[in-house]
Records
---
Amino acid sequence: MKRNNLLYIELTLYTLLFIFICYIFSPGFMTKDSIVQLYQAELGIIDDWHPPVMSWLWSYLIPPLGVGGMLYFQLFLLFSSSYLMHRIFEGNKLSYLFLCVPFLPWIFNFEFVIWKDVALAYTWFLSVALALFYSIKKEGKLIVFLIFSLFFYGILVRSNSPAGAIFVLPFLLICIFKLNAKKSIIISSIIIALYFSYIPKLLNDFWGAKNGHGFSYTMIDDIVAIRMAGGQVPDSSLFSHKEINKYKKCNILNLNNVGAGICDLKKMKSLMENDYIKLTEEWKHTVKNNFKIYFKYRASLFIKSLRDPKTAPYYYYEKSLYQPPYYIADEESFNHVRVTKRINGEYGQLLVESYITSTEKVFSFIFKPFFWVILSFLQLIYFTTKKRVYRLPFWMLPLSSISYICGYIPFTQAHDFRYFYYSIVMTTLCSLLILLLTIKPGVYFSEERI
């Protein structure tokens, strides 16, 4: 069979599979966070508690594609990335493994949830795939534009993404502009620092989104934890002894050691809206004067998340959402009724649940974050020893995975497996890269050295 005919058949079959998957899982699985972003996509962006860029994009996808537009976009990113990686390594039979990426259980588990974690993972996956493709072809200004558009969408869609971006962006710059590693990291650091300083506020002004004070959730956790551990606090604390005793009896906090804001939603809302500056000042004072307690608390949360997430390794719907139609029960602010009904979501739900639970029974370690951290470190060691072999700094990719996970140390908000999703996707990509590069050494990305 002629090569062009084979490529046409492959692309056609993969596209049909993509369409079928979109149909089965449309309009996507949603949590309360997803519904709030859908609400803002339809009625206008209110605040930046959730990434405004995601609601903004969704608002343009709804008219032509319906509510499922965001799901179709996410799946397009994933399937395009997988197919492109297959084409990059065409000629190697193992390249077909890339086509299987969307169906690996540790990818498939959250693949259909409208989450910022999923959006980040898939946008950077495609950005890296396009950068590798460009490094070979060395042509196409549109590709360069797409690479950086996807990268910046990813950095905007997840507030802690800069922790991983510090090594993803240098890799992209090297693929495109052939910079050396040191120069690319310096340039990337400057770009990310400027991003932190200016971009969020500029975009909030553009979208008319007020500051949602999302960091309040973390500050409340820290202050309450330090108070409960007997730490020193200012006399004018925003949290009375009576309130601290109330937190001590909260089941969520006792179970997870995190989530104090949820224990008293009225208190958190009041602090966010009326006393955010005072809350920030008290947090700084409390952390500074009780740093050992703070560090021990944050480290224990992070380690617990790595070792034993409290959430299921898959997701298909929010139990407090009625489907169809979609709306959030018992929350006056978001009780709008969804008019879009699920298509075949119930079949997708059964498929996800049976596939992931059966996999977990045999390979439970796959759904433990520590496994992916260890694997990322091994990949980093491997690529570091191969620096002189490949012209691209592949070691930056597993390092981005590690740095992204470490970015959660001061911000762990729940023991949730989804928080590690980007690192899982990137570690999977690196595993396949190692496999194909090792089997055919000197064939890919080795003719020039940077």
---
Amino acid sequence: MKQFFFSTTLLLLIFISHASGQKSERWIASVRGGGSYLLGNHDKTIENNMLNGASREQAEKYVNDYITGWHGSADVYYMIFNFFGFGVKYSAFTTSGNLKMMQQVESDIGMVNFQTGMNEKAYTQFVASSLIFRQKLGQKFAIAWKSSVGYVRWRSEIYADKYHIPYNLSEYPNMLLEANTWGISEDASVEYFPVSRISIGLNIGYLFSLINKATLSTKYNSPQSLDMGKDAQSLARLDYSLGLGFYF
């Protein structure tokens, strides 16, 4: 066992020494932007919208719009060795969904049909400490893996029609939901260097985060704390993007 430990440690030191001796820039900064896809099960959202008067087609369209969005991110790393470094990462994500439906209410002239609906806009921000593992493949290509853990800020703005009866929002048609939580992200990229210190990259990433508690605010009511319990909302998403890397 001691011999195995000694041999493993020696090989690791030789590898680090060899990697450290290669020429490498100390700082790496990158910016990226692209599309995102929210993961998780959205059947409950479809079911709730149908219970409130939407058809299945309308409820599914709303979810399909909502689960696709856009994101942008930036990060900076200091490379301890040419294959390993640490830094900070920031990302922002936004998406929206629009729900329209026909409602029927009784009036003095009989049953009346009218269109009603709601629009939701959601935003997620992620600020994290991060580690990078990187390997050059010749002079023109490199691959990288980034692992990040940090703070997540979520905000959802819901705008409903003034007389949105199925959501009982006739007194306060707009709502704001906010939450703070933690998240973990993993990112992989392949980079091409058209010049020595600038790269163009293809990136794919995954963010995992759960909302267990949120704050509900309206124009007429003081903020109310919501405990989601077993109905915790998942913010998990898949990101895909193009990016630029700068080495100095």
